[in-house]
Amino acid sequence: MAVNLPLPQAADLKPVRGVQLGWAEAGIRKADRKDVLVLTVPEGTAVAGVFTRNRFCAAPVQVCREHLAAGKGIRAIVVNTGNANAGTGEPGLAASRATCDALAGQLGVAPQQILPFSTGVILEPLPVDRLVAGLPQALGRLAEDHWLQAAEAIMTTDTQPKAASRTITLGGKTVTLTGISKGAGMIRPNMATMLGFIATDAAVAQPVLQQLVKYAADHSFNSITIDGDTSTNDSFVLLATGQSGAALIDSESHADYAVLRDAVTDLAQELAQMIVRDGEGATKLMTIRVEQGQSVAECRQVAYAVAHSPLVKTAFYASDPNLGRILAAVGYAGVDDLDVDRVNLWLDDVWVAKDGGRNPDYREEDGQRVMQQAEITVRIALGRGQAQATVWTCDFSHEYVSINADYRS
Amino acid sequence: MAVNLPLPQAADLKPVRGVQLGWAEAGIRKADRKDVLVLTVPEGTAVAGVFTRNRFCAAPVQVCREHLAAGKGIRAIVVNTGNANAGTGEPGLAASRATCDALAGQLGVAPQQILPFSTGVILEPLPVDRLVAGLPQALGRLAEDHWLQAAEAIMTTDTQPKAASRTITLGGKTVTLTGISKGAGMIRPNMATMLGFIATDAAVAQPVLQQLVKYAADHSFNSITIDGDTSTNDSFVLLATGQSGAALIDSESHADYAVLRDAVTDLAQELAQMIVRDGEGATKLMTIRVEQGQSVAECRQVAYAVAHSPLVKTAFYASDPNLGRILAAVGYAGVDDLDVDRVNLWLDDVWVAKDGGRNPDYREEDGQRVMQQAEITVRIALGRGQAQATVWTCDFSHEYVSINADYRS
Questions:
Q1: Catalytic annotation on B390?
Q2: CATH code, residues B285-406
Q3: Contacts for A88 with CB less than 8 Å, ≥ 6 apart
Q4: What Enzyme Commission number does this protein have (chains A, B) (predicted)?
Q5: Tens-place pLDDT, residues B290-300
Q6: Å from A297 to nearest chain B CA?
Q7: ipTM score here?
Q8: CATH class entry, domain A10-277
């Protein structure tokens, strides 16, 4: 029961020159479902990524970091679903390396030119034999117009594939950006989300791309939460093939940088919000906007306290304007010198709390009206500065409990 | 569906010399239910309390702090349910003061000798007229053997009253301690819980009692969580009438101090665990014990990360040993230099994760066996020090969502 999440159409997903995608049904966890994705890029492609800060980071995340650091130039990405290869120790690392070795051999490149990703159940051994056996099928299907199937191949508890495209013009050249993401639970990305990929045919120097991926992640995947659980496998990767013919963006002061940055960020926000819209059991999308803070950090702290409160989330599920729960969360968010008499709260256009107490003009039926919408903005003004931050989240429903109580069965 | 929570019997709740309790059905929110409690103590009673750290602390909490600071000697406590009198601004403060004025007038004491408490819905005006009108009924029922009715009078979403007693001997004198508590949701006390009261006829000097209440709170109410939501009204109050005839405990080095402290703490733990056992929708009680940390603070941080994870809580609800979710929570708990290769995890006696990965000897059926119990200990060894901490929590069920989606209706 995703919130205003239209099924992406293959025709809307624009191929990115140089990027090919293929998939396999390798039977990693269940038979007859797409569970392996291979994405290849041409020589000279710049690749940058951000990864989970969970200390129990998965084996493939460790291998990704090593291979990016090796600097040999990335040529392919391989993703499996059904198993996260996390909490798997040395055998997990070996399985991830074996996957890279096998794919590298078939592509005629070095193992360090492969980035591996896994998503699924934690603490179970990766069935690497089945994964490797599926690679030839995926390679046989490589094509530029397979973005929709690629989005399908990385789904776990997602109810539908997540993908979108943007087109911009840089120096007279048409530049395409297409991205895919997945995730519906264990979502409170800290650095990036599990998993997001955006490819573009813009030409971007590696260090600039690294800045750009960080900026885009902070304004998209790093600003969403479903259940507050930071995954072991969060990864967001940006690939720039340079095949659009547009000029190389070699610094952040390049005239084209801001245009590309904003397009990537916009696309990343759409992909990130798709994850929230498809949050496990979600019936509502809430935008939590905190303003008038002393710093972005404290605005985010307050926004996450509200976004994680099970009491707030269940009240939204019930369309019940039990809005004192929001004030309670603001109060325990950890801003120790908060003057609550300066706090104001709006639900969309309805002014609920004024100067720390109930707005005398607030009428329950106005709150009720907004609460019944599928998309709601909670705006909190702290009255202590100029900073602001926005976090997107969803409500907490019976369905969330059902999904997570049954996930492995 | 409380977890191993026997209904307290009136005969098991021992009167505390000098403490009288009466209740009223004042119709604060609903008709014909106990919703006001008055508890009186004799002159010379020492009273100490700890209160919520939520910045949006309720009006009665502010008044309690003022009245304790006034130092005139507390003579009565008045509690209403059905309305938290929080987020109510100046009118809320005035309502709380009016309650104290009315009760003080009827008891012939000063308003500063009354401590007021409220619990219920936030952001709605307190119906102070109905509360005041109910006071004579409560005073008419004052008696020493009304502890069970007192526990009933402070319930909100609690499924049953919470009360217990202890008896100790100090210098040959029998000393009694009896306490009551309430709470089932918005429970992650930070300082104390909403609401706990313990009375004793021990004689304790005021500054010593303040130390004692802090110690007991930290080891009981401040170590439980249901949903991570710190209430606006959390309060834990300890009253010592001195009428047992036991010697005055005038310092922490007094021979009787440790005996009384341990008895209070033990009773407070039982009352706090009753709250978790009666957690909204709870079907399981989990004891999260984190060992081998560098500090108690980091052990608590890890324990709370596990205890708050909706994914962990729903897995326990399902009796599903999806134990990678626990490792993921340990990993994102914020211990930045955690060496995951030194982390070990047990479920009761079952060794699940060894040196950061799945224990090769772990068998799914062993995990499954423990997960089916109603009470489970999760033991996490961090492998980096000598500190430890314990937190008690419950699982996350369909019933939790139902209760909180329907609470106001």
A1: no
A2: 3.10.20.340
A3: A58, A59, A95, A123, A124, A125, A126, B357, B358
A4: 2.3.1.1, 2.3.1.35
A5: 999 999 999 99
A6: 16
A7: 0.81
A8: alpha beta
